[in-house]
């Protein structure tokens, strides 16, 4: 089989590729298997990459389907009762209360404080982490479930996002001092950027983000969705969830967001990113 695939074939192939990715097979072996079954190498590789990357809608609007997070006002997330304060539909965001206790917030800060390094961003051309003027902060990445305390937080957040623990990236704690900010950006990997390809092979595209606020910011530091005109000023222990990858692989352009400048005091957060498939 060569050339572009028609819609019915594409759906069948996408389903087969997705099943293999969920079983833990890597992108290269899946493309090789397709080639052995008669697809030309270019078509097979493109089909796998397209499913891993997702697409930003151009001619069609992003379709807001039902997300994985329960619609309940309160629910048990692994080991803690969590309460829903606010939901928006466009983009899909949820503000949760009591995600971390005050002591857990303080413990995350103290564990991270001596390890902090200048924050970096992903270079669009190479996929490497590089310093950037767009992000004035310092951060530290934990390994998934690296000790009992981090494991408890990882499992609670996974349950809250209703997404497998194995699909999550490690917790990233970020500290912003006075004037610290993160200019408008997307959390997903832009499919059109050459540097994104290296990240897709390990878990595919990001699907959703959860930001837990570890302290009360004296002034500034809001999370603002620039395209939607939304701004959040959460309190210590609260968390903001937002989803940008729907069930047909579209990426939501309304989730462009910024960490506004801290104008007084400091800001501490911990971020969790989920991937479409198992993150290795």
From TrEMBL:
It comes from the Bacteria. Pfam families: 2OG-FeII_Oxy_3. Residues 167-276 form the Fe2OG dioxygenase domain. GO terms for molecular function: iron ion binding; L-ascorbic acid binding; procollagen-proline 4-dioxygenase activity. Its cofactor is L-ascorbate. Keywords: Dioxygenase, Iron, Metal-binding, Oxidoreductase, Vitamin C. This is 2-oxoglutarate-dependent dioxygenase. It comes from Nocardia speluncae.
